[in-house]
Model the fold of this input.
Amino acid sequence: DQHQFAVLVLDLDRFKLVNDSLGHRAGDELLGQVAKRLCSIVNRTDTVARVGGDEFVLVLDSPVDRNDAEKIARRAIEALKIPVRISGVDLHVSTSVGIALYPTDGKVAENLIAHADAAMYCAKQRGRNNLQCFEPGMDTSTRERVKLESDLHGALALQQFELHYQPKVDTATDRFSSAEALIRWRHPEHGIVMPEDFIPIAEDCGLISAIGEWVLREVCQQIKAWQREGLPPMRVAVNVSAS
Done:
């Protein structure tokens, strides 16, 4: 009947940590609790679906505008703030929400979901646990992120990472007292990519452990090389991802 409706894409923040720490059974139970809470905040004519992993889609069927959709998104965020007790542990869940409206943001399902998904990624990039409505240009940044993630999967095998060592100098003696190892990604198209631009992606897509192991191995080999050159043993600090 051509009336305006909204599509919301919700992605649970850092859900992988639940699976990794408490197991997949706990993760499944958490998803079930999330689904119940999402069903409780929408109308009976709306649709709530889990479309894969920790991603849900809401279709708000009754005629709604942007303000209505934002209200439902805020309700979803608030509903998930209440801790979920699983396996004797109170789990605190947050979600990032992207919103797209028919027909303004797309007239076919594929475009609507893609645009809501782009807005959701924007919400994650802006600190998670918030909502964003689709704006032109968001899908471009999302495509760039997907391309960067794809390239990141091959960066280790192609030896595109390198370490830069920032010295720490004792000002009393003017000698190096230690150093800090800082990773850089020498991308074939973008040049040097700084860690703040690719470490969050590596954490999200499960590559951070392999990158961390590479850094530790490289640092140890560099320290040994310095010792072979006659330098005294030097302490080197390495940043480790919290995940």
Remarks:
- The chain has seven helices and eleven strands.
- The chain has a mean pLDDT of 90.
